[in-house]
Amino acid sequence: MNKSHLLPPNLTLFGYKICPYVLRVRYVLSLIELDHHYIELDVYANKPAQLLRYSPIGRVPTLIIDNEALCDSTVISLWLAQVYAEHQLLPANAWEKAKMMNDMAAIDSVHDAISQLISADDKSSFNAALTRFSSVFSAVLTLLRAPCSSPNSLVDVWAMVLAHLIRSVDTILQGMLSQHVPQIRSLPDIYRSRARASLRYQALLPQDYVTRLHNMMAHRNAYCAQLNNIALAEEEFA
Ligand SMILES: N[C@@H](CCC(=O)N[C@@H](CS)C(=O)NCC(=O)O)C(=O)O
């Protein structure tokens, strides 16, 4: 199969607009300005056969390239970064590249801790997830504080998406995260930044992003739903 840069492949992305992993890939596609077909799915409510055919566990992002698929944001973005190397999303030097991937893996550990927070259904599992979050978060704090400037490397994209997610989850949990980890308050706020990268990222976010994230959490997180009476009216976040 020819996946060369000179012959742009036929691309379809299965996504879910509030998913941070999907946002990473959409951001990279936007930087590269690569034409693709986008299919929005609420993967927690519905996994169509069209997705399961390529991703047996029904996860997004899944990128169909001609008739084959890549099913993980890191794998997809590494492929794109290497094919479209002129965008310099990855360092050419092998050691620098390995260090960057190390940082990207550390950022993924924070996403895992946030997933545990989001799916906690009692106080003890929520507290365990909070402790885990706080320990993995401190390892990436310097990365997350870096200003969003252009052009972006992959780790900058990872950091921007995570910083935005943490701030949003903290808002929804009415400051419970930042009470526990005060450094969250010093993370960049993409809505206040005019940097090119922030504006590009904002353009990908649904206008009702916080409401949708909030609804997804209320649906999945029995403990926080009780704590904060999380089923708030949509207007509160409009
Ligand atoms: N490691 C994967 C994680 C992807 C992931 O967890 N996606 C979530 C949506 S945010 C998903 O598809 N969840 C559906 C499920 O697990 O059933 C990546 O980097 O792409």
UniProtKB/TrEMBL annotation:
GO cellular component: cytoplasm
Pfam families: GST_N_3 (PF13417)
Cross-referenced CDD domains: GST_N_family (cd00570)
Membrane-traversing stretches: none
Stretches assigned to the GST N-terminal domain: 9-88
Highest taxon above the source species: Bacteria
Protein name: GST N-terminal domain-containing protein
